[in-house]
TrEMBL record:
Pfam families per record: EAL, GGDEF
UniProt-recorded name of the protein: Bifunctional diguanylate cyclase/phosphodiesterase
Stored NCBIfam families: GGDEF
Keywords: Membrane, Transmembrane, Transmembrane helix
TM helices/strands, residue ranges: 68-84, 96-117, 129-152, 161-180, 186-211, 232-250
Residue span, EAL domain: 476-727
Cross-referenced PANTHER family: CYCLIC DI-GMP PHOSPHODIESTERASE PDEF, SIGNALING PROTEIN YKOW
Domain GGDEF: 317-453
Amino acid sequence: MAKNLTLLALAVFALICALAAARSALGLRRTAWGILAFGLAAWAVADVIRIGQVRLSEPERFPRPVDYLYLAFSASTVLAMALFPAKRTGQRRLRFALDATTTVLCLSLLLWVTALHRVYDSFVGLNTAVVVTMLFQIGDLVALTIALLALVRADVRDRRVLWLLVAALGLLTVTHNAYALHVAEAGYQIGSMADIGFAAALIAFAGAAILSRRPAPPPRPAAALPLDSSLWLPYVPLLLAGTVGPALIMSGLERVLVPLVVVAVCLRQVLTARENRRLLAAAAEQALRDPLTGLANRTLFFDRLAHAMMLDRHDDRSVTVVSLDLDDFKLVNDSLGHPTADTVLVLVGKRISACVRTGDTVARLGGDEFILLLEGPADHAHMVAERIVAAFAEPFVIDGESMLMRPSVGMAVASSAEPELAPETLVNRADIAMYAAKRSRLTGLHTFSSEMTLLEPDVAYQVDSADRQLSDGVAQVRLLGELRRAVDERGLDVVYQPKLELSTNRIVGLEALLRWPHPQLGELRPDSFMALVRQHGLMRPVTELVLERVFDDAARWASSGLHPRVAVNLFAPLLRDERLPDALRDALDEHGLAPEMLTLEVTEDLALDEVSRVTAVLHRLRRHGIRVAIDDFGSGYSALSYLRDLPIDEVKLDRHFIKSVTRDARAAAVVRAVIDLARDLDISVVAEGVEGAETAVWLREHGCDIGQGYYFGRPAAASEIPQLIGR
């Protein structure tokens, strides 16, 4: 009686678990658990009836009405297993049905020749007891076969539950066979040892239901393949039936030939399945790999990232995403063509892969965008990212030509304080940090912080004139890479050209001019490389470099008692930065310099847009004591409204007007008008490009304040300025 009550308790417990699993599931899985719960309810009711029969001491016979309730449970397991898993459509459903049919028939044959024929022989003819017994065996075999075939084809999320269901159905199959033999040979006895198998099966059903309610691992990529066992498992029953069966029931030559034929057919089918799997594996690999570089693609990367972040939440591990974008890759594409650009991408992928650790994921999202998944401590990931940046210091060799490609790299770390952080958000943060690195140009690597915002890069100045473009695409790419290195390593120089007060011939100021001492090409003037600086977003770091050099030189001159004003060219879009005035004031204070020593020269044809915002910045600069000048006045889209609206201290007349004032009456008239207008507005006038005494005399006679040009002095190094001013 105790064993019967235990079985009843286990059946009720399994029923409750199945109902809970059905309630939490969705779609066909809910239906499957509902059907299984119905079968377990039939089992529990049958157990209650059987306990009552024991207490009433009813005569033992088989089958009885209660056995049909157990038979209902067997039927429910078949139907429920057919819905695990639910993703079977078209040819896959047909193949699954054929495999199940073959397996059931072969197992039934094997079961018949080994045991069931003894059960059949124990009864007299074909009667109800034989039919019920056979239905039990066939139901168990069908349900077990479907569960096994579903297991080897299932996604990783379903396998834990299916393993327990297979174990439960396997226990039922063995127990029912042993129970049938026991009934056939010893007669029907309530509470036999077979009940241990039934109890274990109920525990396995309950465990599967409980496990199905727990969070599952993230789904595998769409191209993932089923288990290797799916290749050979459907042929195992055929192989057993074709080898064991003939040996038991055949005689003569056929008991040898039939097994050999079955073995040969099974081997041939397995080999065919292996070949098909190899093709599927190749297709799956291609679906998850970038076809150009062989790196992971977007699908595989995000799948691994989701899995890593899920493990991070459970194991307190760090997950880091590194976003990498090649600077100026469009120039490579446009100048050298797509084949060369593809070669560069392949080499970049190899170089990045050589820097990462085993287990790290390197992916190409498209174009020149690469992304990395680094698991482990954040400081280790930072070391990997720095190693990648350092690897790009070595030029790439394409068709015998060396090209220096520089990356902008952003890094974002998943924090344990943000357990709900989505993979897409982490990637977006890495992109934001990458764009910050691209804007700064001070270092190749930036780590995301909450203060960062995704801003537009500075608008590049477009240069269309053919004489300012390099004709050789390889040379242009190479020069740009060398220029970036020169900016990063502070390899640019600053020289100073004197500005003379025409009424006294006294040096009253200097203009800082940029020079690039190229190791092969010699000293390059701005005309040789400024187009690249403007086109590729280098104006900000170059301007910062020049200001840094000017402040250092001015501080040294001041320590010697010299305080010349120094003019620095400023890229006009930088005037949109409202932080500029305070940043310049702080830098001047740090070097111990008076604000009036600095004059910012802005090219007037670049200051046409956003005049109101620029004007506000200029007012703040002048309130700090920093002078403002309009450079190259008259060279572009000149507007007299500048002289009226902009808060400026100085106007620099373009050299193209100045060089012809002594021989071109129209040019002379324009220059005289500007000088007179500026005097009325209390604005100083500087004449650029003075190259002869006649021009200098004309400017002095017509009231020009300051002259600058080769006639007064050529650009000189900072160390020569004290002597130049003294002379």
